[in-house]
Amino acid sequence: MNIIRKVTDLKIGAKLGLGFTLVILASVIISALAFRCFLSIQENSAKRDVTVQMLDTLAKARLNRTLFQYTRDKKFIEINGEAMNQLFVLRTSLNKYSWSAEGGERLSVLSGILTQYQEKRQAFLESSDSAARALSEIHTLGLASLGEKLATGQASAPADVVAPLLSLSFRTEQAAFFVQEFIRKPDASTLDKFSEVRDAIAPQVNQLRGVSGSALAAVVADVEQKMASGSALLNNYLLSVRTEKQASDEMTAAAGKLNQSITDLAFFQSEMAEKYIQTALWQIGFATLACIVLSLLIAWRMTRSITVPLRETLSSAQRIAEGDLTSDITTSRTDELGELMTAVGAMNQSLRDIISRVRDGVNNVARASSEIAAGNTDLSSRTEQQSAAVVETAASMEELTSTVKQNAENAHHASQLATEASHNASRGGEIISDVINTMGGISQSSGKIGEIISVINGIAFQTNILALNAAVEAARAGEQGRGFAVVAGEVRNLAQRSSLAAKEIEALISESLSRVSNGTELVNRAGVTMEDIVKSVTQVRDIMGEIAAASDEQNRGITQIAQAMTEMDTTTQQNAALVEESSAAASSLEDQAHELEKTVAVFRVPASGPLMPEVKVPTPALKHPSPLSASEANWETF
Fold first, then answer.
1. Which residues in the chain land under pLDDT 50?
2. Do 147 and 218 share a domain, yes or no?
3. Ramachandran quadrant class, 464 (left: phi over 0; alpha: psi -120 to 50; beta: rest)
4. Beta strands of 81-143 (E only): which ranges?
């Protein structure tokens, strides 16, 4: 019981740490067990991989040995040798693994068979080399080339030796064919056929041996010697091939045993792998089940040590949530949950004190908010009166601004008219000056016209004299000058009329000059008068400009006053709105105080709770605004 009590009083972190430590310890044990099993499985898998590699390498060695037998290519036997070396390396690599008694025995058997296979391979290589040497000696016979030489030498041979020479050539080529057949398939039947051919060419050789002084004699002797040695070479090659085949068969049998031994070892390793897996499954399963049971026990115990005090704390919290603050909450636990229960008890006591104080405070706030609302209502009323007065003042200022603005506009308009009149008077003065100049020009032109008329009058007088002289001369001429006299008379009449017209024009021009002189004098007087008018209009324009500037200054000043009144009106309205909002806030505060009072009424506290002192809210003295006088309110007398 003492140990259980100590465990119960442990901190939650220590409890969780202890529980997790036990679970982790069990997990470590399971992991170690699983690791050991997995190592065994991994080692067996590695041994099995080596065994499979040995099977593949052996198959590679056997394949290349077979290819060498059929092709006699040295590269295949070299590959076979490399595969054999790899087999010994793989066999040596198996020694680094641990083996059971049965596995060690199988491995020893495999080593012996592998050594036997290596010995059989060495014997096969020796017999193969012997057969290869015998075959190379057979290739040195050259019977086919000798047959061709015999065939080509018949052209220069005597007539009595042509027939035996042809027969010997045919037999030699036939023997070369049987040699090739024997090389392709060495057997006794082919060897017998070669021997028959060898015996058949003896008469031809004897018949041709006596041929002298011919190149064919050496060829015939060579054929006889090659045929004699060929039988021995073929017999030797046949024995080498049989020895090689026997060594190959023994090597094949050894390879079969080696393959079977490696296969048995692979099956044994597969059985061991399955055995290791089953053992690992049972061991890991049992350890896992024990770990699960231990974890469930730890979880159940830790859950009870946490949930039971949590339920007690939750029950106390629910009573507090329901407003029941009358119970006392205590506990004897010293862990976090005990501290939580103690904190809930302290919270219960604090809430009990707070609710009592809140109730008293709510009553004081409700009374204070009522008085604030009444003061705000009175302030709102006075602010509205002030706002109405400001609105009336702003309306009067607006009318005054409109009047001053209209005066300023009229002054500007009059100034513009005076400026235009000044400009027009200036242009009139300029026009009068132009008229004076024009009248002067007319006077000068009239003088020139008078001079021209004087000249015309002189010409008419001279013409009249000439016409008179012409008439005198025509009278002297008598009848011949009568027509000339008539013409002279007409010319004289014209000259007299021209003189008369010139005198009339001169009189008119004199009269015109007199009038032009009078007009020039009048125009000069008008010019002086226009200059006076221009000066007067300029002065009027300057005065109207000053009036317009003064009106603009008045307009700007009154506009600023009106703007200030507008801003004052806006500020007053904002103050009124703020007062209304403050009044509404005070009313809302009063309502919220009542709601808060209803809310805290849910909590039940002992009747002997502490009370807060009542707060006294001072009531401000209200001052009513004095009404405006008639002179202050009448802005139109400005």
1. 1, 212-213, 609-638
2. yes
3. alpha
4. none
